[in-house]
Amino acid sequence: MHKPYLSVTEDGPVAVVTLSRPEKRNAIDEASVNEIEAWFSKIPPHIRVVLMKAEGDHFCAGLDLREHHDKARSGVEFMRVCQGWHRAFDRIQHSGVPVVAVMQGAVVGGGLELASAAHVRVADASTYFALPEGTRGIFTGGGATVRTARIITPGRMVEMMLTGRVVDVHEGKAMGLCHYICDEAKGDKPAAELGMELARKIAGNAPLSNYAIVTGIHKIADMSATDGLYTEGLIMAMVQSGEDVQARLGDFVHKRAHKVTLES
Questions:
Q1: What domain of life is recorded for the organism (predicted)?
Q2: Which of 96, 110, 114, 129 has its CA 20 to 30 A from that of 37?
Q3: Which of 113, 159, 171, 197 is catalytic?
């Protein structure tokens, strides 16, 4: 019997989705991809943010190469596998619910493709990134050429794939692969704790604003400047119709809202 890949709990409006295959460094097989797609396709309506983390010392080592080797798929068969990964990770990125990823250890190959679908990425100091597909005689198939390349630029992705080099957490942050680093040896709070703090803060935003941010910005980036500006105006008009907009603006006008400062 296949052990579930995802373990899900709830903390108020935050769903905590945990990759639960630590004995395989949370490598992703076909069943795991199907689980990811199924859960993110039907996020409970009361959930405002998803916190995605992983059991064990590693976030995700990517494609289950043992399964890939043993199945010896044809080109057409693996094309269908890739399309399944694309659908699953599209659900993460475009579901309309913000996803905060907490990473540690290996974020490699398909694991980096998975992390790239999240909207906010928090890394433990142990985190490292790599795209070793070139050294394995294969190619990316889970969306890296679209998502990861947009984060780090296509040129940097080409270099990482050709050389197979490992990028440490500090270079990864400079490249945009993570937004926050938590180094407990230097007194930082644990990455999981910061991730939950950020998730709760995001959950406090207006739901319609969150939806617009995580569904609109990437799509506008695919448009021409003219179409993008027009779409931005339409989204703003839609968000303006939210039921709590006037109350939130009233808090600002009457000085009840927090001020934007370096400390906030």
A1: Bacteria
A2: 129
A3: 113
